[in-house]
């Protein structure tokens, strides 16, 4: 339900710790398997694959990421680049996950939330 993130700052030599509770919607709640996510993470470490994925998502807006048809097209393109064939159910789970996140690619907080979810 809530993930805990900690922010550390230094103020005149004193360490101060602030904890912030952020709601995290785990991808497992959408039926996306952790093994699949780990395979994708490993493949994304390849610079060639990473660059091709960047080309797929370049120029996306928050409105694009709330459009089911566009998200489905992006998921299909990404699965092709990653050489991860998806069946209809897996594809729908990923699309539902992306739509539920209400991602704004220009909002750093949204991107940090996603990074924390998949690190």
Q: What would you note in describing this structure?
A:
The structure is a single chain. With 119 residues, the protein is an alpha+beta fold. The chain has helices at 34-44, 47-57, 68-82, 88-101, 108-118, and strands spanning 2-11, 14-23. A two-stranded antiparallel ribbon has the order 1-2. Residues 1-24 have low confidence and may be disordered.
Keywords:
119 residues; two-stranded antiparallel sheet; alpha+beta
Low-confidence stretches are 1-24
Shape: globular
| β-strand amount | 15-25%
* Total helical segments: 5
Task: Give the end-to-end Cα distance, rounded to a whole number of Å.
Answer: 17 Å
| Main sheet summary | 2 strands, antiparallel
Structural class: alpha+beta
Overall domain count: 1
Spatial order of the strands in the main sheet?
Answer: 1-2
The pLDDT mean sits at 81
Order of helices and strands: EEHHHHH
Instruction: Report Rg.
Output: 16 Å
Helix percentage: 40-55%
Number of distinct beta strands: 2
Organism: Paenibacillus methanolicus
InterPro entries: SpoVIF
Pfam families: SpoVIF
Protein name: Stage VI sporulation protein F
């Amino acid at each position: 339900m809530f993930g805990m993130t900690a922010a550390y700052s230094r103020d005149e030599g004193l360490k101060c710790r602030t904890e912030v509770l952020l709601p995290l919607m785990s991808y497992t709640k959408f039926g996306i398997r952790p093994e699949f996510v780990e395979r994708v993470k490993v493949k994304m470490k390849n610079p060639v694959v990473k660059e091709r994925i960047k080309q797929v998502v370049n120029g996306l807006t928050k409105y694009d990421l709330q459009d089911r048809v566009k998200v489905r097209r992006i998921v299909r393109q990404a699965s092709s680049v990653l050489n991860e064939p998806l069946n209809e159910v897996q594809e729908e789970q990923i699309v539902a996950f992306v739509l539920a996140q209400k991602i704004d690619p220009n909002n750093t907080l949204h991107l940090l939330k996603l990074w924390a979810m998949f690190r």
